[in-house]
Amino acid sequence: MKLSQCAAFVAIADTGSFTNAARALGISQSAVSHAIAGLEAALGATLMERDRAGVRLTDAGLRALEPARVMVVQAERVRQVVRGAGAEPEGPLRIGTSQSFAARLLPAVMSELHVRYPLLEINLREGSDTQITQWLRGNGVDVGIVTLPKRGLTTVPLLQDELVAVVPTDHPEAGRPPLRIDQLATDPFLMPVGGVEVLVRAAFRTVGLEPGVGHHVRDINALLAMVGAGLGVTVLPRLALPLVLPDVRLVPLSPPVVRHLGLGMRLGSQGSPAVEAFVEAARPLALRSDQGRRPVAMR
């Protein structure tokens, strides 16, 4: 029984599929399949069953999961002890980041890390909140920017990000802030793809409504351009907005809708000098990043 086999097993259990586990671990799907086959052969038991609905752990798999997870965590702790608790951060640091954090805050964090710890090798993976969570649980990244709360992860609060309505400049509510969420219910709604959608739908449901979604849009710049062209309205976090906006208006929501962002760490990695260096650099920069800075709409 090998550590790599246990890591693959834990990743599948946490992410729900061989494909997602392969992505989280940064290896091929065939390598994951080979690892599970080897682990099952070594244990003499079938650990999981696959069907169209995904992966289901057998009774043996359920019993084996936590001991396997302990092995993966303990192996990481051994590496940390060998390196020494006071060792200067060096080597690879795998960061899972969202589009909004990468655009506004990550460059400043990386710049500070490069100056203070030149031996640190930063590897970035950009994805949705769900993907980053899967990567953390599957050992695909060491630290990630996630929405809080998150079960099963070690987390550190980072900042609170307000959601705002984004409307065309000629929208009847553009000049009358704040805006109630139900006042957007009659407009074609352009839904941002990713973790924000959950917050948006929850805000509408507090008033017993569902948004009339005309399009789902992943790219923030395309979404803003569509609003500016009068194709609909949307709701976005301030952190996701560029400093210079197209011809749109931002309107605060009443009551306010916020998302809480934090640093998520895979179990066993929080004592890593590299992870601690990232947390030390990210927290103060995030807290003061938006003070006095707000996106400016072009007239």
Structural description of this entry:
The chain is of the alpha/beta class. It folds into 2 domains: 81 residues, Orthogonal Bundle (Arc Repressor Mutant, subunit A), CATH 1.10.10.10; 209 residues, D-Maltodextrin-Binding Protein, domain 2. It is globular, with a radius of gyration of 22 Å.
Keywords:
Arc Repressor Mutant, subunit A, 12 strands, 6-stranded mixed sheet, 41% helix, D-Maltodextrin-Binding Protein, domain 2, 299 residues, two-stranded antiparallel ribbon
Q: What's the end-to-end separation, in Å?
A: 64 Å
Oligomeric state: single chain
Total number of domains: 2
Major sheet details: 6 strands, mixed
Low-confidence stretches: 290-299
Number of strands: 12
Tally the helices.
10
Radius of gyration computed on alpha carbons? 22 Å
Fold blueprint:
Layout: H1 3-15, H2 18-25, H3 29-43, E1 48-51, E2 54-57, H4 59-83, E3 91-97, H5 99-104, H6 106-116, E4 120-126, H7 129-137, E5 143-147, E6 154-168, E7 189-192, H8 196-205, E8 213-217, H9 220-228, E9 234-237, E10 244-245, E11 248-265, H10 273-289, E12 296-297
Parallel strand pairs: 3-4, 3-5, 7-8, 10-12
Antiparallel strand pairs: 1-2, 5-11, 6-9, 6-11
Helix pairs in contact: 1-2, 1-3, 1-4, 2-3, 2-7, 6-10
Give a brief rundown of this model.
The protein is of the alpha/beta class. The chain has ten helices and twelve strands.
